[in-house]
Predict the 3D structure of the following.
Amino acid sequence: MKINNKPQFYRDLILISVVLIVVFGIYFFSLFNQTKGEMAHIQYDNKILFSINLENGSRESRTSTYIVTSMPVIEGDKLLINNVIDNRLDTGDGVIVFENSYVIKGRLGYVLLEYSPEKKMIQVVEETSPYNICSNQGFSNSAPIVCLPNYVTIVFGDIDVDVIM
Amino acid sequence: MSVKKLVTLSIMVAIAVVVNIVESFIPIVPGTAFKIGFANIITLIVAYAYGPKEAITVGLLRIFIGGLLSPSGFGPTFMLSFTGGLFSIIAVVVLRIINKNGLIAVSMVSSVMHVVGQILAASFLLTDVVAYYAPIMLVLSVPAGILTGFLADRFLKVTEGWFQEKKY
C-alpha cells in the first residue's frame, strides 16, 4: 500500500505546485497593478450614475439629480421625504441628494449611500438584500462595494474615466 | 441501484444543501460572499465512494435546490454559484476519471476552479469589481480546498468499506 502511494504523492505534489504557481503568479501580478483612486463611481447595472470626489466631496452626475431639503427615509419599498412619498426614481435612473447622503434605486429597492467628509470614505447605509453584504461592509475608499442582488456597485478610480454609455 | 445507495445519495444531497445555506450566513471576506465550500466535501465523497455519474447528479441537485431555497432565488447570485459549482464538479469528475491524484490535490484544484467559474460569470455582471477581488479569492481558495480535501479524505478513511454494495 505504501509503495503504491509513492508515485501518487509525487503526482499530487506536481499538481499542487502548478496550481500554487499560477494562483500566486496572478496575485503578485495584481499587487503591482493596484490603483487607489480618489473618485468613487457609483454604478447601477455597470453604468456610472454619478461620481464623488473623495477629497472634497464634489459630485459629478451623469443622471438626473434631485436635491431635497430633508433627509430621505426608506420605509419598506417606499421612499419618504418630509413624510411625503417620493416616486421620482421609479421611472429609471436618477439620484436624490441631501447634503452628503444619496439615494438611488437598485433592483430590489432603494439604496442609501453616505459620504463622510472627515474619513474621506463612502459607505452603503441601507439597502434591501438577503444577506446585507454591502451595508455590513462599512466605509471604504479602495475595496469596491458590491450590492450584487441590487446590481449596485461602487468602484474607486481616477478622475478621468472613460464614459461608456 | 440498491435502496441503500438511493437513500445514501439522497441524504448526501440534503446535507450538502443544508451546509450550503448555513455557510452563507458566515462572512469570511468582508464585501464578498466567500465561503470555505464545505458543501464540496459531499461532491468529493460521492465521487470517490461511488463514481463520476453520481457526483454530477448530487452536485447539480445541490446547486438547484440551493438556488430554490436561497432568498434571492435564481438571481445574479445564483448565476455565480451555478457557474462556480459547475466548474468545480467538472474538475472533480475529470480528476476522478483520470484517478491518479489524492483527494487533497483534487479538492484544491476543484476549489480553485470554483473561483475561476465565479470570476467568469462575474465578469459579465460586474466588470469593474472582478479585477479587485479575483486575486484575493483565488489565493484564499487554495487553503479552503486543502481543508475540504483533508476532511473528505478523513471521512472516506473512517467509513472505508461502508459504501460498497453487498453481494448476496
About this structure: The first helix of chain A runs from residue 2 to 32. Residues 1-34 of chain A form one domain. The longest strand of chain A covers residues 47-53. Chain A has two domains: 1-34, 39-157.
